[in-house]
Amino acid sequence: MPATPDNQVLIEHLDPTSDRAVFRQIADHLRAAILSGRLGEGDQLPSESQMADHYGVTRMTVRQAVGVLKGGGLVESQHGRGAYVRRRPQVRRLGSDRFARQLRQEGKAAFLAEVEGVGAKPTVDQITVSEERPPDDVVQRLHLGSRVKVVVRRRRYLIDAHPVEFATSYIPAEIARGTAIAEQNTGPGGIYARLEELGHRLDHYDEEIRARMPDPEEARSLQLAAGVPVFQLIRTAVDVDGRPVEVCNTVMSSDAYVLDYRLPAQ
Amino acid sequence: MPATPDNQVLIEHLDPTSDRAVFRQIADHLRAAILSGRLGEGDQLPSESQMADHYGVTRMTVRQAVGVLKGGGLVESQHGRGAYVRRRPQVRRLGSDRFARQLRQEGKAAFLAEVEGVGAKPTVDQITVSEERPPDDVVQRLHLGSRVKVVVRRRRYLIDAHPVEFATSYIPAEIARGTAIAEQNTGPGGIYARLEELGHRLDHYDEEIRARMPDPEEARSLQLAAGVPVFQLIRTAVDVDGRPVEVCNTVMSSDAYVLDYRLPAQ
DNA sequence: CAGTGGTCTAGACCACGCG
DNA sequence: GCGTGGTCTAGACCACTGG
User: Fold this and answer.
1) How many CA atoms lie within 13 A of B229 on its CB side?
2) Could you say which DSSP state residue A47 is in?
3) Chain B: nearest CA to A102, how far in angstroms?
4) pTM to 2 decimals?
5) In 3-state terms, what secondary structure has residue A106?
6) How many CA atoms lie within 13 A of A100 on its CB side?
7) Cβ distance A204 to B265 under 8 Å?
8) Does nucleic acid strand D have an atom less than 7 angstroms from the CB of B23?
């Protein structure tokens, strides 16, 4: 009479007659456990060795299964510690009125004011300002000639020391050169307030939103786990004369943000 | 004197003194080749065996490298054929005025009219209509009681036979029951035209946008390659009395869409 | 049929974390 | 020091594509 170790109950979860690959079946089990709540956010998965024993497969097969869940953003692993059900960080809602409001707020940049308002600690770092030839898509959006330079502002935004987005703004040098827009600190109300003071009364913003996987540099800068896509939001500010005066390219961690827009029906 | 086969030039690309894992170095090489255009969209990568020979590693190591690029959405592999630089399909731009327009268009649903307008063949399939208890988040958004039922409309949209999005609409049964909204074919102008005919003049739409990796069911339904995230767009239609009359939950392939919004500055 | 990617084994050694 | 995940080897067999 053969021995029947207790892991037999788990081994029975595998269907050897199924066409579905073993590692996919294991991934399915883990996914079901997570979605059902049997494994909650932050819970540790069984170790790879344990699962290999349980299912009667090698560690490499288990790793394939876990890899599926990591690619789907459900699981995050930490070298030397274990694999965990990924926690969804607190999201920040970006309303479509955020810039209308900003124009009225004096003294603080919108990001700082809003994040402090919910009791978190906002930071802006990696600020650089330079004058450059813009990339082609920016040339198009700003209706510039091919040799025209722009002031380029780069910065990264963090909430409670967690990076959530970074942005690059392009303003025609003709407008921004020598103004506060070309300084590290643009002063109260940010560059939109400065643009209006310079006579470019703003009419509207056009926003283009894409979603994609980050490149390795973006993943590093935003400390993204595997399986977390980014929003790419390209905003063009247009003044009342119909002239585009700024393009801002923002890359945001998709699990730090929900974008809210209100559209009139007419 | 040892033989130096021609693949030696490629083997030299590996830096054995580097801390970076071999499969990451290989992935870096391939990514650089793709981003520089040396490998263009649709081009076939060297076979796994070829790369294993070139770099002097096993096939499993090469597969890890290719897996990195698949997870990033850069590469797509086809069983028995090879691995290819992924093609980005044509994108459809979703303007924020798409529903204001729709109200004026008679005779055709907005999706069909717009896609035909660019010379492509639009399809809607998997249409189902039923009456159900809505999920919690829909109960909240529609300001409903806990036992109230809604008419649920599901459908999938395809462009040139490629699925690009699927959507689920929830309309309070009290409003929709017995009307064209509860039929397969809602008639000219779609459900928004019917809602207005029923006396619910629409005031605005609230849209919430998220990005995330698809679950396996979504990936199958939208035929998504690995490394392609989805947009999830939840739209709530509100009538002039301030009553939410529809919630529509749409899941879209992120590489089929760019979302465009225009925001007034004031 | 040959060549491709997909799955899986049975090991090995390493780097990291934590007690 | 021990358990964890990370990397890598050297095979094997399979499923699929295409000539």
Assistant:
1) 25
2) P
3) 10
4) 0.91
5) coil
6) 12
7) yes
8) yes
| Helical residues (DSSP H) of B38-172, grouped into ranges | 48-55, 59-71, 98-104, 110-117, 136-141
Length of chain A: 266
Nearest chain B alpha carbon to A192: B265
- Which pLDDT does position B6 carry in this prediction? 37
Which nt sits closest to B61, CA to C1'? D8
* Rounded-to-integer distance, Cα A119 and Cα A116, Å: 5
The amino acid at residue B232 is: Q
| Block residue for tokens 């025609």 | A172
For residues B136 and B121, give the distance between their C-alpha atoms in angstroms, rounded to a whole number. 36
Strand C lies under 7 A from the Cβ of residue A166: no
pLDDT at B5 over 50: no
As averages over each run of 10 residues, the pLDDT of chain A (266 residues) reads: 36 78 97 94 97 96 98 97 93 83 66 86 94 96 93 95 95 94 89 92 95 97 96 96 97 96 88
pLDDT (mean) for B29-47: 95
Question: What secondary structure letter does DSSP report for A5?
Answer: -
**Separation of CA A13 and C1' D9 in angstroms?**
31
- Kindly tell me the sign of the dihedral angle through the C-alpha atoms of B57, B61, B63, B64: negative
CA distance A238 to B115: 29
DSSP assignment string, B67-95: HHHHHTTSEEEETTTEEEEPPPPPPEEE-
**Contact in structure between B227 and B72 (CB atoms under 8 Å):** yes
Q: Under the phi-then-psi rule, with left for phi > 0, alpha for psi from -120 to 50, and beta for the rest, what region is A18?
A: beta
3-class DSSP state of A56: coil
pLDDT, position A6: 37
Tally of CB atoms within 10 A around B149: 16
- Residue whose C-alpha is closest to residue B203's, from B171, B235, B244: B244
| B118 phi/psi in degrees, rounded to 5 | -105, 15
Q: B101 CB near a chain A CB, below 8 Å?
A: no
Tokens of A93: 């809602």
In whole angstroms, give the CA distance from residue A76 to residue A66. 9
Q: Give me the CA A57–C1' D3 separation in Å, rounded.
A: 19
Chain B residues whose CB is inside 8 A of the A228 CB are 213
> Å between A28 CA and D4 C1'?
23
What is residue B236's three-state secondary structure?
A: strand
